Amino acid sequence: MSASAIGIIFLLLCVILFLAVRLSGRRRAGNAGKAGDARLKRIKIVSDLVGTLIIVSLAIGAPYSLAVYLGWLPLPPGHKILISPHQLYASASDIPENVMALALVRWGLGVFCALVIYKLFRLYGRGIFFSARNVLYIRLLGYYLMIDWVVIYQLESLSREMALSCTQPVIGLLVIFIAWIMDEGRKIQEEQAFTV
Q: Residue 16, Cβ neighbours under 10 Å: how many?
């Protein structure tokens, strides 16, 4: 079975899963007594859906991309391995060792980021929105953006074609700042709860 056929089957399964969860969510939300309960149920349904999509994509995509990077799977005709914007390789054997090491670091960072997002959405699904864990996960996503940019910078410097934007680290700093604001708000809310 070709990679495009697997991709189409995966896409169809995702659409079917989405429609099934959406229909069951409408049924459940329609039976809810309070508007707040209905909102929490919708958040739980969407969070469960996002979590499921992340796990399915990790289960299929992470091993596949790792196998392609390491040369265990042949590339379909006409396809190339994209490591960074200026590094395209016809096969895994063409990738220099230092580029391969950085590519594997980016792969690991991507898997880590997907797991952090999964854990964050699990908290949302349980109705936990402003806990210390939420703040930690959001902060980790900001750090991920900054570290990934550093790795991309290293890859670009190896290709001798520097066309980097500073958008990614700026967004990473903004995400860390938002996490800090959430944490301060959480602390203020906890202090008010103790004083009342």
A: 10
CA angle, 5 then 7 then 8, to 5°: 65
What residue ranges of the chain have pLDDT lower than 70?
A: 1-36, 196
- List helix spans (H) across the chain: 3-31, 35-69, 97-125, 132-159, 167-195
Q: What is the pLDDT of residues 61-87, one digit of tens each?
A: 889 888 888 888 888 888 888 887 778
User: What pTM was computed for the model?
Assistant: 0.77
d(CA 141, CA 145) in angstroms, rounded, equals: 6
What are the residue ranges spanned by the domains of the chain? 3-195
The whole-angstrom separation of Cα 62 and Cα 118 is 15
